[in-house]
Design goal:
Layout: H1 3-8, E1 17-20, H2 31-34, E2 39-44, H3 51-68, E3 78-79, E4 82-83, H4 85-105, H5 125-134, E5 138-140, E6 143-145, E7 147-148, E8 151-152, E9 157-162, E10 167-174, E11 178-181, E12 196-201, E13 209-210, E14 222-223, H6 225-237, E15 240-245, H7 263-269, E16 275-277, H8 284-287, E17 291-292, E18 297-299, E19 301-306, H9 324-347, E20 352-355, E21 364-367, H10 371-382, H11 394-423, H12 434-438, E22 444-446, H13 452-459, H14 463-474, H15 484-493, E23 496-501, H16 502-511, E24 515-518, E25 525-527, E26 530-531, H17 537-551, H18 553-563, H19 585-623, E27 629-631, E28 637-639, H20 650-662
Parallel strand pairs: 1-2, 12-15, 12-16, 22-23
Antiparallel strand pairs: 2-9, 3-4, 5-6, 7-8, 9-10, 10-11, 13-14, 17-26, 18-25, 19-23, 19-24, 20-21, 21-28, 27-28
Helix pairs in contact: 4-5, 6-17, 9-10, 9-11, 9-19, 9-20, 11-19, 13-14
The structure holds ligand CWD.
Ligand CWD binds near residues 448 and 500.
Length: about 700
Amino acid sequence: MKKKMILQQQMNEYKYHYLFTSFDLETYDLEDFKYNFVNITSFRLVDTADVGVKQILKDIGLYSHHIFKKPYLNLHFTKSTVLESEPALMFDSVYVFAIGLQTLEQSHSLTLSNISCEEENSWDGGLSLINYLNAVEWKGLTGPIQFKDGQRVQFKLDLIKLKQHSIVKVGEWTPHGHLNITEPSMFFDAGSMNVTLVVITILETPYVMMHYGKNFTGNERFYGFCVDILETISREVGFDYILDLVPDRKYGAKDPETGEWNGMVAQLMKYKADLAVGSMTITYARESVIDFTKPFMNLGISILFKVPTSEPTRLFSFMNPLAIEIWIYVLIAYFLVSLCIYIVGKLSPIEWKCINACDLENISIGNQFSLTDSFWFTIGTFMQQSPDIYPRAMSTRIISSTWGFFSLIIVASYTANLAAFLTTERMINPIENAEDLASQTEISYGTLDSGSTMTFFRDSVIETYKKIWRSMDNKKPSAFTTTYEDGIKRVNQGNYAFLMESTMLDYIVQRDCNLTQIGGLLDTKGYGIATPKGSPWRDKISLAILELQERGDIQMLYDKWWKNTDETCTRKNTSKQSKANSLGLESIGGVFVVLIAGIIVAAVVAFFEFWYNFRYNHKATTSQSVVNTKYNQDGILESDRNYTPPDRSFWIEISEELRYASWCMNKQKRPALRRTCSKCTIPKGQRINKL
Ligand code: CWD
């Protein structure tokens, strides 16, 4: 299989084993396979590390320099310090032939006689030369050389294997001793090997922290949540590790202009480390250049902000339980209902009462719903007091009961919400979520530099987040902080919000009561352990992470580093705050609808009552069995036997009545409509003599 095909099929992983039949593996370009733990095994003929081979190569170099003024013969014979097997074999055979000839020359003359084309005359020295060649024993470029019956019998083949950084000799094959493997561990699974991985990390409380001082060296310097996880995983999977800090103290972000990566991502891409452990977020951009294990922790971006100050107590705080528009609507409803009762009372004949009913001399008729009484009646009902006016007509009763129901709901809602307001401390919170943050300019905000939070806003297509990014990007001095501690410091100074990862945010707000989380999570993602692309450790570590999660080990470690410390601050329970909100129209608007419906029904009923009365009086005027009335100077209706009302239509009557009502006071002219006093039934034939 060609190298290109192996790469195309992505068969360059630790799962694949290749046995090369060529003796020239060392001369191939294996850069693409080196760090992927692909198993490549082969034999080699020329051991360039051998002292004898080195000496021969040195001599060839000197010779070529002497003859061609070049360090090596330019015959595609060599490639830097390695030697292809074919030229090496050629060199050895020429050398052996030269030794044979040299030995032959000592007993034979090497001048050749003429050759005849007719006769078959063999060369006398030929047999001797074969014998001398068979007798040659020499150590050439391809190892020890010895012949038996014209066959080379003494030679060795080195068994070689591709290790992470180079090709190493792992055994030897000889025709007599057969295969002797000197490095058996090289053929075992990476899990059981005694390997030491280079692990890079970044300081981030409580994930990775550092002991400073001479007493701590090597891996002992580091401690924290991620260090504990790494230690547990290394025992599970079976590897040793050297833990060190990433040189530029960055997680890793791609420069959009140069396309270059920095931080831990760059270190893994350059194969300078085998693993990157820390609060390293799995992102799409990173996943395309390095590999991540399964996440060991889930999180999202949130807003860290200073705890808002308490709202100062105001003189009119008692109004807070209801929204201001509700107060206005209640006031409007009060005026409307009072006027309606007044008008409906006037229209409804039942609301007209005889005064001095049995004194036929002074009989007069009055209405209990004067304008001031209507207002008094409505406010009395609203205040849950029983006023001394009792509506008698159906229309006025409908309005009264609807208004009573309205008052009951408003007063009950107000009382309940007032209790909540009095028991909770109100806070002034200038921002509630990311939208609030984006739409204001007073509070500045930022993220950690070159981290996934920064790239989240930079690459987002959501308008709010794009706006946040533009604001942060243009901010002078920079909105980005080199460490998250800087961000917290700026939040504590005030007027600054820090967009950060929720796990870290939880850790901070549990310890600093002056800080709080604003809103929910803007996204969801996870922390994983990063490896170079194609690393065999990725799957093994992923399995270990899943096992640790299922066993609850990761939860226990979380509790250890987040909760079981004395540093946590005791916070007042602020959960009630959000519940004590002013009641708005959307909560109690329905009660206004009921009230309006009641007013309309009452108006309709009043209309029919008026109509009924009109019909009744129309008939009565002809029979003369009722007392006709008129208004005296004091505005009281009085009976008037001399008064004969004009015979007018219903519509003129009702408009007259409404016009009278709109004058508001009783001290007006007599209305056109004749009123009846039910209590004053006049015996047939008797007439009222006097007003
Ligand atoms: N990181 C970040 O981008 N924002 C944060 O608030 C914290 Cl605590 C860390 C780095 C991030 N985890 C990454 O991998 O880039």
